Amino acid sequence: MEAAYKAGLVIQPSLGAVPRVKRYLDEREGKPLDDVWIDIAPLNSQAQERLGFPTQKPLALLERIIKASTKPNDVVLDPFCGCGTTIHAAQKLNRKWIGIDITYLAINLIKRRLKDAFGEEIEFEEKGQPTDFESAKRLAELDKFQFHEGKGADRGVDGLLYVYETERKDIPGRVMEEPLLKSEPVHREKIIVQVKGGGVNRSDVATLLGDVENQKAAGGVLITLEKPSKQMRTEAADAGRYTSKLWHDKDYPRIQIVTVEGLLNGTEHIEAPPQINPFAMAARESAREKQAELLQ
Questions:
Q1: How many angstroms separate the CA atoms of 114 and 107, rounded?
Q2: Nearest by Cα to 180 from 52, 59, 60, 282
Q3: Hey, is 12 helix, strand or coil?
Q4: What CA–CA distance (Å, rounded) separates 270 from 208?
Q5: In this predicted model, what pLDDT tens digit does every residue of 69-89 receive, in sequence order?
Q6: CA-to-CA distance for 277 and 212, rounded, in angstroms?
Q7: Backbone phi, then psi, for 127, in 5-degree steps?
Q8: pTM strictly above 0.70
């Protein structure tokens, strides 16, 4: 106490008052965080970082977790990266990262998010998916389940593409989500995707059309390893087209057939409204590019 007094750290506010010790915040370690955090608000419908992913977490939450558990240049692993909040935070905080997800839809969303936030020049490696027709064919021969990513009880539905549309009250059963802007009610239409690694025929087109109608989907896509017959393409064309009002009243095939080879070499693509939320993009970050991997 005497040493503190001589150092000028003891004060007495008034005569007879209890002496007090001066304390400087920059010399103290601070109070450790407890295990209940109420200072980070959950994402609401107006949040700028919201991307429409149902389980999306606030970026601030993942930043705090990563800061508390790692140091710069450490490697952060997220084996179920969803819409990529963890790897976004890791990239921003100068950590290396590895993100893993089972669906191409999540991977595509994450790639767009990273480019929105850090610019087109950001570099990362994408691994785990066939890059040419021969590798896709080998995967189909070795493991049909991995090639299709089917679930068994879903009647052959191997995936769903969600595209954003304006709200339509005249058609029930749509996949809805909270509006992102009060002036623009938004919901998502779904497009059913079926993948066939073996022989295909007209009945596959009819099955897909039936699933589209039963699930009140906007359309369907049949991805085939083999080239479709003329009868299959005629059957698909006869299913008609659907119109996207959000994307300037443009119409798209209700049923379409694309080949794995065409998708991989860039000669074919799925005709559909953009699979992005037109009212939400990841906020731009100024962090430098980091070594990273994006796995599927």
A1: 11
A2: 52
A3: coil
A4: 15
A5: 999 999 999 999 888 999 999
A6: 22
A7: -125, 160
A8: no
